[in-house]
Amino acid sequence: MQPRDFSDIWAFVRVVETGSFSGAARQMDTTKASISKQVARLEKTLHARLLNRSTRKLGLTEAGNAIFQNALRMLEEARALEATAAGLRAGPGGTLRVSASLAFGNTYLGGLLPDFMARYPDIRVVLSMTDRYVDLVEENIDVALRMAPRIDMLSAVARPIAPIRYVLAASPAYLDKNGTPASIAELAAHRCLTFGTSGAPLTWQFEREGVQQSVRVDSAMCANSSPALRLAMLRGGGIALLPTYVVGEDIGSGAALRVLPEWRPVGAFGDRLYAVYLENRFLPPKVRVFIDYLVEQIGERPGWDGFQPG
């Protein structure tokens, strides 16, 4: 293909997007005849018919659909290149759309964003919090923060940000009244606060020096919100298994106490925080600086784990 062919490709894309040669001509400030000539020339270059023409509408052939999808990716690369060049000239800017879980967004991420926005005043952050997996493309998300590296498509990247650890925690008042468990098995006799929606008994798993042990516990309270379980635990409701980014500060202040600290609880949602984003050779500056900021501010020794020695 020659450089001229790329202009023909853009003309073809505009025809498909507008649904007509005249619509493409208006967008590209040229004539309908010129657009028709460009598309015909592209078909000749590719040795393939791209459009099914009728008096009422245009339709893509099988080859035309494949070419159109590839052309869209080329166009996205070109736009990313322009954005990168603009970012290098003017610094990171634009709207950054971030997705995070309700618990992480409410307990930690929200507090990180003001300093990020002060550092990059031309970036406007739109934070969407949900506990479901979002589709980066369909929902126009720049970065999704996840506790497991689930990849929705081949063109996505999961960059590790920080470790996620879990602890058993209870209030001093609860332990004074009900005693402190001395073994994993004793948890079955305590009021346990569990994550979920069914309220049915479930199994907590633990690990210590390569040894694994589990216990089946009843749910004195079940909730699909870690912050809600934290509040119930702090008010003496029972023993909760929580991520340290939710309960770390409470343990550091003494408002909550660790239960069986020699055992490492195995969390149900993974052991690392990832930033998931669409792979792009020309990563927009707003995405790059945001991920770098998270690594800088959280890292391998997160502040929420400050209560742990070593």
Automatic annotation (TrEMBL):
SUPFAM superfamilies to which the protein is assigned, alphabetical: Periplasmic binding protein-like II (SSF53850), Winged helix' DNA-binding domain (SSF46785)
InterPro entries the UniProt entry points to: LysR-type_TF_proteobact-type (IPR058163), LysR_HTH_N (IPR000847), LysR_subst-bd (IPR005119), WH-like_DNA-bd_sf (IPR036388), WH_DNA-bd_sf (IPR036390)
Keywords assigned by UniProt, alphabetized: DNA-binding, Transcription, Transcription regulation
Pfam families documented for this protein: HTH_1 (PF00126), LysR_substrate (PF03466)
Domain of life of the native organism: Bacteria
Xref: PROSITE patterns: HTH_LYSR
Gene Ontology biological process terms in this record: DNA-templated transcription
Chain ranges of the HTH lysR-type domain: 1-61
Gene Ontology molecular function, alphabetical: DNA-binding transcription factor activity; sequence-specific DNA binding
Record family assignment: Belongs to the LysR transcriptional regulatory family.
Annotated protein name in UniProt: LysR family transcriptional regulator
Source taxonomy: Bacteria, Pseudomonadati, Pseudomonadota, Betaproteobacteria, Burkholderiales
